[in-house]
Automatic annotation (TrEMBL):
Keywords: Amino-acid biosynthesis, Aromatic amino acid biosynthesis, Cytoplasm, Transferase. This is 3-phosphoshikimate 1-carboxyvinyltransferase. The gene is aroA. 3-phosphoshikimate binds at residues 37-38, 42, 198-200, 227, 340, 367. One of its GO terms (biological process) is chorismate biosynthetic process. PROSITE patterns: EPSP_SYNTHASE_1 (PS00104), EPSP_SYNTHASE_2 (PS00885). Residues 464-475 have a biased composition (Gly residues). It catalyses: 3-phosphoshikimate + phosphoenolpyruvate = 5-O-(1-carboxyvinyl)-3-phosphoshikimate + phosphate.
Length: 475
């Protein structure tokens, strides 16, 4: 029995729940998804600091990327949409802060600006160090839950670098909102932080480190840093822009001072967001193909190949097409350090025939919502058997029933609800629109995936290049 048919969103409007489509036959579809959030927002930051104009090809257009674009514009970068070949929106041209020149350059420096971080970890962590390099105060705030996300390490790091950071009442803040008093220059040097709550603290400082007068020797001390793949992505992106980074000693990153080279960069599709679509193959016992899977990538989503194989799928990567074929059952398994993939993995574990344990994800309590609590509540609400551990989840097999999955303004909780709904008739997802954080097209892509009949038709859609074949199939 479904308790409620609608809920109010942040602006008080009543929004009907999304009836998650049930797969009454195996899915057989070809899907492409929009550009990577993590790559788009890293390249935007680097482009804003580069030694000339840059271009991002096929970037993500979503709430998180728009928030990043607006933040960089506030700090003085010029960002323009230009036509490109991407199926999900225009390319972006970025003229960096120091190259803007002429009208507006002087205005941008010195004046007070306001940065809305929304709920985007990449904006609330990556932009404050950039604001430190600009002369003048920048205030930072975000969604109600953004004020609960860990920020202390960035605030303390900036203070240790000699940058003023204060709460609106003048005291020392522990989280959003706060004001960064940029001086136009940061000396840099050796900096010790505790990045155990988020890898984004490390990435944020590395991204700007080359623009500090003395560069940056960043050292982490404390419990292990989570989501190391995302730090490796930051290092790779920096090296690609000509920045020297030495990461040969664990927990130390040395960024040499110097220019960041302007670039023209194709953005890979978001492999983490490919996850729910690949999971659909297992949840329905069908087949999902993703063309354009990168041969080499730093994205954590490349782990889908091993994760889904361990859950019983047949997985192959041939000529850039990743094919995942589900069988008659989903196997439970133990997974460590699944980072932002965890909500999708947990949804599959709730459908598995054996028990699963997810570990090394304690820091998910500081994500868009407390994801460990949210996953336990929502899986159990549907009759599942999930339990929190100190650093993750245990999920045991149970027969699930219809119900409303709450999303907590968390895009990955909403997509987890969609996966459960494929296998369990009568699931509704509260606030499916929250997927706009990283994938505004999610409902259309999902129903497009389900509307596809088979390979030939699907591949035809893909060749037409119309927003990925999932979106193109049945509109
Ligand atoms: O740098 C990034 O782009 C990200 C790093 C990770 O953050 P945490 O280290 O806080 O998990 C990841 O979960 C987030 O979705 C994106
Ligand atoms: C944790 C996530 O996002 P953010 O970049 O806001 O930290 C996520 O996308 O799963």
């Amino acid at each position: 029995m479904i308790a409620a048919a609608a809920a109010r969103n942040d602006s008080g409007t009543t929004v009907p729940h999304w009836p998650a489509p049930y797969a009454d036959r195996p899915v057989d579809a070809t899907v492409t998804v929009p550009g990577s959030k993590s790559l788009t927002n890293r390249y935007l930051v680097l482009a804003a600091l580069a030694d000339g104009p840059s271009r991002l090809r096929a970037p993500l257009h979503s709430r998180d990327s728009v928030l990043m674009i607006e933040a960089l514009r506030q700090l003085g970068a010029t960002i323009t949409e230009v036509p490109g070949d991407g199926a999900f929106g225009p390319d972006l041209e970025v003229v960096p802060l120091q190259h803007r020149g002429g009208e507006g350059q002087e205005d941008a420096a010195g004046t007070a600006v306001h940065i809305d971080c929304g709920l985007a970890g990449t904006v609330m962590r990556f932009v404050p160090p950039l604001a430190a390099l600009r002369g003048g105060p920048s205030t930072f705030d975000g969604d109600p839950h953004a004020r609960k996300r860990p920020m202390g390490t960035i605030i303390e790091a900036l203070k240790a670098l000699g940058v003023g950071v204060s709460a609106e009442d003048g005291g020392t803040p522990a989280s959003l909102p706060f004001v960064v008093e940029g001086t136009g220059e940061v000396r840099g040097g050796h900096l010790v932080i505790d990045a155990s709550a988020s890898s984004q603290f490390v990435s944020a400082l590395l991204l700007v480190g080359a623009r500090f007068t003395e560069g940056l020797h960043l050292e982490h001390v404390g419990k292990p840093v989570p989501s190391l793949d995302h730090i490796n992505m930051t290092v790779a992106v920096l090296r690609g822009a000509g920045v020297q980074v030495d990461d040969s000693v664990p927990n130390h990153w040395v960024v040499s001072p110097g220019p960041i080279r302007a670039f023209d960069q194709q953005i890979e599709q978001d492999l983490s967001n490919a996850g729910p679509f690949l999971a659909a193959a297992l949840a329905s016992g069908g087949t999902v193909r993703i063309p354009g899977w990168p041969e080499q990538t730093q994205q954590v989503g490349d782990l889908w190949r091993s994760i889904l194989a361990r859950m019983g799928a047949e997985v192959s990567l041939l000529d850039g097409v990743l094919t995942v074929r589900g069988g008659t059952e989903i196997k439970g398994a133990d997974f460590a350090d699944t980072s932002e993939l965890a909500p999708t993995v947990a949804a599959l574990c709730a459908l598995a025939t054996g028990p699963s344990r997810l570990s090394g994800i304690a820091h998910l309590r500081g994500h868009e919502t407390d994801r460990l609590a949210a996953l336990v509540t929502e899986i159990n609400r549907l009759g599942g058997d999930a339990e929190e551990t100190s650093d993750g989840l245990v999920i045991r097999p149970a027969k699930l029933h219809a119900g409303v999955v709450h999303s907590y303004a968390d895009h990955r909780m909403a997509t987890a609800g969609a996966i459960l709904g494929l296998a369990v008739e009568g699931v509704q997802v509260e606030d499916i629109a929250t997927t706009a954080k990283t994938m505004p097209d999610f409902p259309r892509l999902w129903t497009g995936m389900l509307a596809q009949q088979g390979t030939d038709r699907a591949m035809q859609g893909s060749e037409n290049g119309a927003g990925g074949s999932a979106g193109a199939a049945e509109d």
